Amino acid sequence: MEKEQVPQDDENLLEGKFTVVKYALDKNGKYVKVPSVGWEPENVALKQAWEVINEKVEDARKRVLSGEVSQLAYWIEKNMMDEKLIGDYMGFSKWKVKEHLNPQTFKTLSEDVLKKYAEVFKISVEELTKIA
Amino acid sequence: MIISNYKHQQSAHCENGTVSNLLNFHKLELSEPLVFGIGSGLFFSYMPFLKLNGMPATSYRILPGEIFQRMTKRLNIKIKSETFSDKKKAMDELDRALDKGLPIGMLTSVFYLPYLPKAFRFHFNAHNIVVFGKQNGNYLVSDPVMDNPTEISYEDLMRARFAKGVMPPKGRMYYPIEVPTPTEKEMKIAIMKGLNKTTSDMLTIPVPFFGLWGVRFLAKRLRTWDKKLGEKQAGLYLGNQIRMQEEIGTGGAGFRFIFAAFLQEANDIMRQDLFNEASAEMTIAGDRWREFAYLAGKVCKGRATSDITYPLLADILLDCADKEEKVFKKLKNLKA
């Protein structure tokens, strides 16, 4: 790839925070570092990955609202985690986390446990228990 | 406390970048491509039986940490590296090292680095950064993928250093304690060692998932993705392939261009024109990889015309493998 061919397809995925480095050939055929703000196929693939995540979050939200699962399910998806990963943070087995996904069990959790969940998700206990 | 003689230089890939920046501080000037080449960074693997976030595990480079390990060993650089079970102790230890005037490399999770753009913050636990000071309670961060240094709070850095999940960083921090200046001969030997490992990785690992066998194996599988998985899932698999190949850190074409840049620099040190020839050929292979990503992107977006088919994409991959095979066979016969 030549320097002039380094794509600059900005879709604001970098939020204007910085440009990334690509290696390309200059006029003398020497490799140099060239800044880039993105490339169409990269952007497409990244947005596609986020669509999948967003679908999962939306699906979890619906299941919480219908009373099928506890609020925990939403925050797990929102943080791109699974029962195993959140369990690692909490010091629980994934089976214990699965119990907490039951809305009835979730209601009985102590303030301490809720607080710890909230801390891992970087939210308040109120946010953890009231999602809509 | 700011280590003012630390110089931040941006790189394509975080691991090359931290190594290069730390060594430059210790008076050993090595570019990113040289670090990558001597550390035998280039690779290919495709392991469909191993799923990451539901996608087949695929990579265009060797495992995280390996570049660092190999290149420091090949240049006889001694590194102090440690992990911690206690978070506070890990932060205290960092402060102590900074007080001694040492910039410190460390592993973090991208997910917990608030200064990065949101779209790139996934649970990836092997992101390397350098901390080179502390100011008003915030740490000064030299993140090699960014053009300028930035800052992070105590809490956020601690969180990022102690992320859980796949390959947890466990607060790992590292810094060089002995950096000898290599003689020209030592440099040549290190380059050849790096290169020989890459050529043998790419040509001779007798398992179909690795090296050029891996590329051909991917081509074989990909040829029927749409038939076997359905359009939607096949599109997601393609997207995953594009991301691994082109996203931040790769320098373009799945590290192939960084490798070609390494061959050019090697040419100047080894004084053998064959390196430049190999570099030019690797560039052509890299351009072909990019063509793959370009067309695959159209398929993902649902904008493919009828002539962009999965078999066509598979054929491009086979061509990439053939082109790279020529380069590696050429390099294999080189002597220092």
What would you say this structure looks like, in words?
The complex is a heterodimer of chains A (132) and B (336). Chain A is mainly alpha-helical. Chain A is 53% helix and 9% strand. Chain A folds into 2 domains: 3-38, no CATH class; 42-129, 434 Repressor (Amino-terminal Domain). A two-stranded antiparallel sheet of chain A has the order 1-2. In chain A, α1 (40-65) packs antiparallel against α2. Chain A is elongated, with a radius of gyration of 22 Å. In chain B, a hairpin with a 2-residue loop joins β1 and β2. Chain B has 2 domains: 19-77 and 181-336, no CATH class; 79-178, Cysteine proteinases (Cathepsin B, Chain A, Alpha-Beta Complex). Chain B is α+β, with helices and mostly antiparallel strands. In chain B, α1 (14-25) crosses α2 (32-38), α2 crosses α3 (66-74) and α2 (32-38) crosses α10 (256-270). Chain B has 12 helices and 8 strands. Chain B has helices at residues 14-25, 32-38, 66-74, 87-99, 154-161, 184-204, 211-222, 225-229, 231-246, 256-270, 273-300, 310-332; strands spanning 42-52, 55-61, 78-82, 104-108, 127-135, 138-142, 150-153, 173-178. The interface between A and B is large, with 35 and 51 residues.
